[in-house]
Amino acid sequence: METPAHDDLPTPTPAQRALDALAVNAEDQTAxxxxxxxxxxxxxxxxxxxxxxxxxxxxxxxxxxxPGGDPxxxxxxxxxxxxxxxxxxSRYRLIPLGAxxxxxxxxxxSLAIDGSSAHGLTLTSQGVRTLLVx
Length: 134
Hints:
By secondary structure, this protein is of the alpha+beta class. The chain has one domain: Trna Endonuclease, Chain: A, domain 1. It has helices spanning 14-24, 29-37, 79-85, 97-102, 125-131, and strands at 39-44, 64-65, 71-75, 91-96, 110-113, 121-123.
């Protein structure tokens, strides 16, 4: 017996499947590797300078303040996930997560991947550098 297709449900991306696997087992190396190799959407605030004169190899990280005051950078695995949490942001840069992690700042800055979803993952600054750098 076949299960009917649900055209209204988007197919999970490899990054979303990796996040689901990490929710079950935080040390799943295959899922961590998949996540590090996946591209994520890094929001670009609409009021940001349009990048003239900026180095194309650097990315301005969008930093949000958590309710407790801790800074966090939100990134997303799809446009739909980004629209859920940041509906007012219409522009983004697509960046491999491992490359972003390899240039992660030294300060205490957390990373939230799909923060508003059931499969969301938040990593500390140290976690970003140790788990996702490839």
